[in-house]
Specification:
By secondary structure, the chain is mostly helical. Among the domains are: about 140 residues, Ferritin (Up-down Bundle), CATH 1.20.1260; about 120 residues, no CATH class. Helices cover about 80% and strands about 0% of the residues. The protein contains 14 helices and no strands. Helix 1 packs antiparallel against helix 4, helix 4 crosses helix 6 and helix 9 packs across helix 10. The longest helix has about 45 residues. It starts with a helix and ends with a helix. About 35% of the residues are buried.
């Protein structure tokens, strides 16, 4: 068993415990506590298999501690989101290691911990339907996705504008041209990102709203057919046909509940998620792209010539390393590996555009 795989179990144990201690709902907190115990059991079993001491129990990694701090600052939904987004890959790594060792027995860790958590929630006697809905909505709409969008938005802005600035710096000798290109690239890229995000969110909302309207029309025009669909949905969950039919009859007495059920189960739409603001998403994308894009431009506000080019390269490299390090929150890879990989790719892109700019500048001058 790799030390890294053991560490992922230790980190998951720590983060679920953090969630449990900071969850206001006692029932959901108990679920997180159970998940922490499950992860602790995995870690102890893997330590024993690897002939490693479990006393004291291993400490969480720096990555896990950073996630806990992010939760304290921005809300623990972010921690849950990252956990849910990374559990599948972590479980796959563990199961792959077991298969390579020739151990093909089924184990809890071979399955997605996301599924385990959902099963605990669904069968926990104190978890109500509204709590389950809140959990489902929460881990799908926040957390890992939000953090990933922030990291990728900053990365897009930095890499694209860094390459643009270096290309123009290579082709010209004037600071004004570089500043103009850098600011234009920042605004053009940020506006493009914002518009794209607005269209994406708005079009999704309009599509879902149209589908929901069609579902309501079907419910009004053909209630018997929709009742059969509800019964089939219940039967697909393992409920006997007779009981499923009774449950469908009961829920059809309230058209609103029937519509909500059909929309969620048949269309896979959570109506609460349609309340997100397209404008808010657009402004967030604009800001995140702009933050990354301004980094390579700043040196040219105070310096000129090759000194500005060198300083822009240095600060951009630092930014690229920080972005690469932030990516490890989702991948679990080494900070140094991810950071320097990002630096290499970013500098390579900038070097290519600088070289092309130099070539074009020489030809134009000649």
């Amino acid at each position: 068993m790799k030390i890294q795989s053991i560490q992922t179990e230790v980190d998951a144990c720590f983060l679920y415990d953090v969630l449990a201690r900071n969850e206001k709902d006692p029932a959901v907190s108990e679920v997180f506590r159970q998940m922490s115990e499950i992860e602790r059991g995995h870690a102890l079993a893997f330590l024993k298999k690897s002939n490693l001491s479990s006393d004291p129990f291993p400490a969480p990694s720096g990555r896990a501690r950073v996630l806990a701090r992010i939760g304290k600052l921005f809300g623990y939904d972010y921690v849950l989101g990252v956990l849910m987004d990374t559990e599948k890959s972590l479980s796959y790594a563990i199961s792959s290691g077991r298969k390579k060792a020739g151990d093909t027995r089924s184990a809890v860790s071979d399955n997605s911990h996301v599924t385990i958590l959902k099963n605990i929630l669904e069968h926990h006697p104190e978890i109500s339907g509204s709590q389950l809905t809140r959990f489902e909505k929460r881990h799908r709409s926040v957390g890992g996705n939000a953090l990933r969008a922030a990291v990728l938005g900053g990365n897009d802005g930095l890499v694209s504008n860094f390459s643009l600035v270096m290309g123009v710096a290579g082709a010209t000798q004037g600071n004004d041209e570089v500043l103009l290109a850098g600011i234009a690239g920042l605004l053009a890229g940020a506006l493009s990102m914002a518009l794209g995000e607005w269209i994406s969110v708005k079009s999704s909302q309009e599509l879902y709203e149209n589908q929901m309207a069609v579902e309501m029309e079907e419910l009004e025009v053909n209630p018997e057919g929709e009742k059969k669909e509800l019964a089939l949905i219940y039967m697909s969950k393992g409920i006997p046909a007779g009981q499923a039919a009774q449950m469908a009859d009961e829920i059809m007495k309230d058209k609103g509940k029937a519509h909500e059920m059909l929309v969620r189960e048949e269309l896979g739409i959570n109506a609460e998620e349609l309340h997100g603001s397209a404008m808010e998403a657009a402004l967030t994308s604009f800001f995140l792209f702009a933050v990354g894009a301004i980094i390579p431009v700043v040196p040219f506000l105070f310096m000129t010539g090759m000194k500005a080019v060198i300083l822009s390269t240095v600060v951009s490299a630092i930014g690229l390393f920080l972005i690469g390090s932030a990516i490890t929150l989702f991948t679990g890879k080494s900070i140094w590996f991810s950071g320097f990989r990002q630096v290499v790719f970013g500098l390579a892109a900038a070097a290519i555009t600088f070289g092309i700019g130099k070539l074009i500048g020489v030809q134009v001058a000649g």
